Amino acid sequence: MRIITHLDSHHMVNQYVVTAEDSQDGILIDTPSLDRKLIEILEEKKIILRHILITHSHEGHSSSLGTFFKIYNPTVYSFFPSIGGYGAKELKDGDELDLAGLSIKVVHVPGHSLDSLCYKIGNALFTGDTLMCGSVGQTNTLVEKELLIQGIKEKLLSFDDNTLVFPGHGPLSKIRIEKMFNQDILEASITIFG
């Protein structure tokens, strides 16, 4: 598997282009913008953008979906059947996809947003704003934060310690590192599920 990281400097959001090792069919994770550098990456590597996985519908992660449709006509996947006015294939927790020669496990972890999805592809976990290096996504209430942390503990931290974490913002991490050093998770003391 090949993973190409592209930082959208306008929204400061990480975008990821993922392909199988010997394939030109590509998957893009999140669409904050379509800038010249990303187009150059796709053209230089001869990647055909077939699929877009949306981690959540906040503007910084989905605002340029229309532009991608005009140029590449990809299939879009998200928690909601429509995103930004464009149709998408609706996903739910536990779904498994086979796209561009890659097996993808869908993990729904609400809290930062109702529609927050993470995608596990091989040893890589694409977490959007759910889990970042040393922190978790912002929430509006304490209940949402506890829901988010509970979901992270149950669904994400159960993956192998060496699973690489590719967040929507900031540097890469590993599940092991988040278990040991993520202050938001370590400081969580309220359990809303008993």
At a glance:
By secondary structure, the protein is α/β, with parallel strands linked by helices. It is built from 6 helices and 16 strands.
Provide a descriptive summary of the structure in words:
This protein has 194 residues and is an alpha/beta fold. It has six helices and 16 strands. The chain has helices spanning 36-44, 59-62, 65-72, 142-156, 175-181, 183-187; strands at 2-8, 13-19, 25-29, 48-53, 75-78, 82-83, 86-87, 89-90, 96-99, 102-108, 117-121, 124-128, 131-132, 135-136, 164-167, 173-174. It has a six-stranded mixed beta sheet with strand order 1-2-3-4-5-8, covered by helices on one side. A hairpin with a 5-residue loop joins strand 15 (164-167) and strand 16 (173-174). Mean pLDDT is 92; it is low at 189-194.
Highlighted features:
16 strands; globular; 6 helices; single chain; disordered C terminus; six-stranded mixed β-sheet; 194 residues; alpha/beta; 34% strand; 25% helix
Q: Structural class, from secondary structure content?
A: alpha/beta
Low-confidence stretches: 189-194
Tally of helical segments: 6
Give the percentage of residues in beta strands: 25-35%
Order of helices and strands: EEEHEHHEEEEEEEEEEHEEHH
pLDDT average, as an integer? 92
- The end-to-end span amounts to 40 Å
C-alpha-based Rg, rounded: 16 Å
Please estimate the helix content: 10-25%
Biggest beta-sheet profile: 6 strands, mixed
Q: Specify the overall morphology.
A: globular
Query: How are strands sequenced across the largest beta sheet?
Result: 1-2-3-4-5-8
Q: How many runs of DSSP E, i.e. beta strands?
A: 16
